[in-house]
Amino acid sequence: MVIVEAVLETYDAVDFTAWPITEPSSDRLLVLSGRMSPADVGTAMAVIFSYNRIPLTHAADLTEAHLEQHLAETEGLIAPGGLRFRDTATNASVPPGCCFGLENWREWWNVAHGQQPWLGHDPATHITHAGHVIRLQQDDEGSPSIEITRGELSSLLTTAQQHLSGFLDLARKWAATNTPGPADRLISALDRYFVINATE
Prior knowledge:
Layout: E1 2-9, E2 29-32, H1 38-51, H2 64-74, E3 81-87, E4 93-94, H3 108-112, E5 125-130, E6 133-138, E7 146-149, H4 150-178, H5 183-193
Antiparallel strand pairs: 1-2, 1-3, 3-4, 5-6, 6-7
């Protein structure tokens, strides 16, 4: 069975102390969903704040004006991570590649439509289309591959969107407590720049 997970790389949360976060996993990937613990959500927000250099000093006093100015200067939000595909039967895994962040996750819809978009590197994801079957493989041609149909990929991407929407709901609760001033604007920015609730 092939599953998909929306993930964030957590390297940017190392030594983070502005609010509670969870211990990093061995692979440094944090799965985003509506079932995350408060500390997991804190870790995700720590990554997003740190990676985008949003001021962390006195985060509870961050104002909407400061956040708005920062978003204007940086032209939005980006985050290290993306979609990870796993075959639970074979243990094959295709994690997101470098320089293709969470903000680009909807590029996978182009794969479902028969295209071969660039999906990052180190490791790079190689896509082979054979009729309605898609083979996903990373870098080494001898590495384990994952095979799914276009229809299955479309269903997985819908699932990924649901996971991200669930995370956004938890982030809204987190922001109301930890960054109350710009909470609504912050959640709006997460939704917009990570293209969570937009239609395909």
